[in-house]
Amino acid sequence: MNAKAVVVDGVFKKKERHVKANARDFNDKFSYADNRIKTSKYDIFTFLPINLFEQLQRVANAYFLVLLTLQLIPEISSLSWFTTIVPLVLVLVITAVKDATDDYFRHKSDQQVNNRQSQVLSGGSLQNEKWMNVRVGDIIKLENNQFVTADILLLCSSEPNGLCYIETAELDGETNLKVRQALTITSDLGDISKLMDFDGEVVCEPPNNKLDKFTGTLYWRDSKYPLDNGKVLLRGCVLRNTEWCFGMVIFAGLQTKLMQNCGRTNFKRTSIDKLMNTLVLWIFAFLICMGVILGMGNTIWESRIGRNFQAFLPLSELQSSAVFSGFLTFWSYIINLNTVVPISLYVSVEVLRLGHSYFINWDRKMYHRQTDTAAEARTTTLNEELGQVEFVFSDKTGTLTQNIMVFSKCSINGRKYGDVYDEFDQKVEITDKTACVDFSSNPLCDRGFKFYDGSLSEAVKLEDAAVQEFFRLLALCHTVMLEEKSEGLLVYQAQSPDEEALVTAARNFGFVFRARTPETITLCEMGRTVTYHLLAILDFNNVRKRMSVIVRNPQGQIKLYSKGADTVIFERLDPSSDDLMCTTSEHLSEFAGEGLRTLALAYRDLDENHFEVWMKKLLFASTVIENREDQLAVLYEEIEQGLKEMLTTTAIEDKLQEGVPETIACLNLADIKIWVLTGDKLETAMNIGYSCNLLRDDMNEVFVVSGHTLLEVQQQLRSAMEHIHSLSRAGIAGDADKSDMFADDSAFEETVIAEYALVINGHSLAHALEPQLEHVLLDLACLCKAVICCRVTPMQKAQVVELVKRHRGAVTLAIGDGANDVSMIKTAHIGVGLSGQEGMQAALASDYSFAQFRYLQRLLLVHGRWSYFRMCHFLRYFFYKNFAFTLVHFWYGFFCGFSAQTVYDQWFITLFNIVYTSLPVLGMGLFDQDVSDHNSLRYPGLYKPGQRNLLFNKRQFFLCTLQGMGTSFLLFFIHYGAFFAMAREDGSHFSDQQAFAVTIATSLVIVVTVQIGLDTHYWTAVNHLFIWGSVAVYFVILFAIQSNGIFGIFPSHFPFIGTASSCLSEKSVWLVILLTTVVCVVPGLAVSFLRVDLFPTLTDKVRHLQQSRRRKRPPERNPRRVRRTSSHRSAYAFSHQQGYGELITSGKNMRTGTVSPARSPARTQHSSNWMENILKRSNEVSCISDEQHKAATV
Q: Which residues are annotated as catalytic?
């Protein structure tokens, strides 16, 4: 059979993959990849050229390489080559060592994997082969606890029915066991001789990265058998609880699904990075301008004055023309002034980011003891971006909530269960002291399950038919797998916490799920073992929003049990159930008012003949390769119509995570807009929004957009916009004084903008994201304090994030805990993953990860703000000191005949940035903090300067470079004037240029050191060591390189002997240095004092308050939580994933959630009281600062 193929864009691509068992010659015709993997980038021969090529693609490195080349030309270079090559080589070597180390570990990992041993069936027996020698079509044997060698088709195993258990942690981060099952036709091929005779051919899809999908067909013995994901073991999985299994290799090496998913992650760059690139171009243009000015000056000087010196300084052949001399001088000054773009800047930035990342990793206040999970910075490039976030996009389930479900209430046949009433028939609040239903008579009950309404237990004991059918449905209609660790100790492995909660409830009320096979489900009903024949599972997906099972009970009756969203179940009910549906719908609304997640259940009896016809259609559709899912969906829809009995609705409580309301309130006060993007229904999302302070009762309006057509959505969006504009105009006109007050004091700005919220449904969002409406949606959403998008798909989550990124230019952060959040996390500027109940997929794809949503507050308001503050102050100081250092050459050019003569000694030029001033600025960039972490959280308004780019922008760059230019001007001309008139103590003049250079260099080092001391807000022992140690190192090196000893060793490199000791021994020199320091530093210091005194920012006020309040503040009382009720309809919360039903019928296991202790409601503070405390603190800062200012003025 020849492989079908197509040609796409000139590349030969296989449309189908043909693999034949035990036939290497056949499979070799298709040139399939072998099983060797290679994730490394280099080898011993290619490392140097490839790594150098990659590094020189960076503009800064290429720029300095060009400068180095220019310095090798004697006619234009007045500096030795080592002044550039030393820092350049240092940067290249550090980067190369880092890259080589990373690649070395990749090589080790590749070798470790490629050299693993595998048993391959060859020559009638099992042979040990290295993984890299395994080929497509080989039959291999796996044993317990072994990694799966390649993507293989499971043929048989040691377990009954060809089952095997696998762990997929390397694929999706989940550690729970999953089940795979071989085809019945191959499940008995356990004998070596049978396996050698196996010559089946698999026709399947080409290599792809879809971990949850596989489509293929096995051709063997003139028959064909459908293959899906449940028949395949993927590379990276580990075989568990299975003695052995055999499989046929389908994909190998780089074509396996694991390796297909190892694509490159998009490189994220911060806004400061982008600004720095722009600024470097500006600096380069400024450098060109200075070179042109000085080059023109040289041309003029040579033509007018220089000719007078030709008698004893004759021109060379190249300098015969004044114009050409100016051209050469231009390049000479480009070399001399190149340090305005210091190469050490980029190394220092990376060191700072690495240090900031370690601070996040080491923060004990972001460590979650219950799960032993610490915060982790998975990238080092985005730390300062954390201080500029304006939009947070959050998942709900598992992110804001615990994703730990508790069966709370239910409605059965029109009667409600779950509430507790006193002797006066009044509902009472359930507390820890409320008596629970006693399940001790059930030996198989879950001891941790609690239910408080005894009437439901009594109804079960009285054999109420509706109640028993309710729990029977819960025990049958699910995809839970069972593990019985010991007699009576049942462990349910569920793919969602909802499933586990429902099956556990049925277990405690006497309907215990005991066992399952691909064909049967066994229950223990009120102590009696009952086995149901499982005829079909109608799987869940996001379109169907429901799942059903078809079973045959011991009496021979065929029943279809269904559970799903109340809307889809209601649509499929028989009209005879309308009265019951109305009653149940009222109960749904009541449950929704308490923020509970709801689910509707129903069933119907099936006719034998009708079912047999339908089953034949199902079997045919399940073997179709193309459009299989669509055909199955049509058949599912057909048999689920006309549900006769509307039984019940269940209500499950999904508790909020600890600290969520406080975190959201605090982020709101930091002017961070929070959008919740959830797959839950509108009512549930709104109720959770109220519970966690995202929505508040004092908001002016909560707009709900739920139109089904483009026109309806457009009308609703525009109506909301008009409403906001009309109220805003009226408010401003009626209370202008108040608006002025808010404009003056940013601490109160939040109280006037937190007025609107937007809630939009998934189907409405699909229309709103159309090009003609997306701007209207975005404008409306940005006017709202909170936005909730319900029933959204993972793709829609990413589209919403991309919309804000594209049109608002704001920094976005996405946070989630599940696989459905990965696309959103990767799309946002910053992705945060929670290690939650839904696995580790989000954490593995994120830039930062931790265990609880509440840690986001500390990540942004403390670490993010500090990182942004430190990076901005670092950059401002760095550019200042380099302009002060470099532009002295520019002023000197006007007094040296524009000859490109340097002021400083060449060794000073080489060591200034990498030795003399590197550590102080790194110390400031690593450890400085304007206010403490406590006050950063206490006053969220401190975060706003980062959002507005106030600390480092083009204006700040201009100011710091202007300060540097002024310092360079004063450095040169103060010394020039002093040396012009100054004499030594013996009466002789300072006539040597080297003494002039030493004095200016010493003044420069002292000035920039004093400046960084004044700029440092938070002193540590490390800062003291770095700052004063660097000054000491300068003098040590200065005296060393101008000593007799080093001259004797390197006479050509250190020709100036004793200049430093001779110059610095003069008192007049130290007076000049002192004068220069005072004149350079005092103006900036005066401006800073006046700014803080006359125009204090919130940061200045908090710092002043912090300094005046060193005593420990009195403890604050935590207000009691007030439970909120609402009439909003709650949501269907069935958190399934598609495909589990088919895998159950083939023995596939489900994912289980780890249940952690529920948080006491008393630990959650009421939102409004908490926010009032924050506002009081902000008011306190403003008032106290104002009072102190007035007192100081008096």
A: 395
